[in-house]
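Reopening this ticket.

The earlier resolution said the output was attached, but the attachment link was broken on my side. Pasting everything inline this time so it's all in one place.
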Amino acid sequence: MTRYPFFLVIDDGAFPHVDQTSGPAITMDFYCNVLRLAKRYGMRIPICCTMKHLDIHGIYSERSNILTYSKQLVSLFLENPRFIEFGHHGLTHEYDGNP
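Inline output:
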């Protein structure tokens, strides 16, 4: 296999939209494409996620922020550790109280 000299990191994973609350929606297709890219080039791509969007057990109080496909996304992470590395990007993505 040919090795390629680049490294990708997906920041702000699990956001529902491109700019957190509006703009184009980020769908499960995006994450499937990241997985295909990782498999194609034999690499492991970190996806750093904000946890409130993946709260499949209802621990966080703001239930409206949870992705409709959060269970699918968590399954994709768990089923593909060779290609996707889960990164923690905080609970709410706030800095000094600012979203």
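Reporter confirms the inline version is readable. The chain has two helices and three strands. The mean pLDDT is 84.
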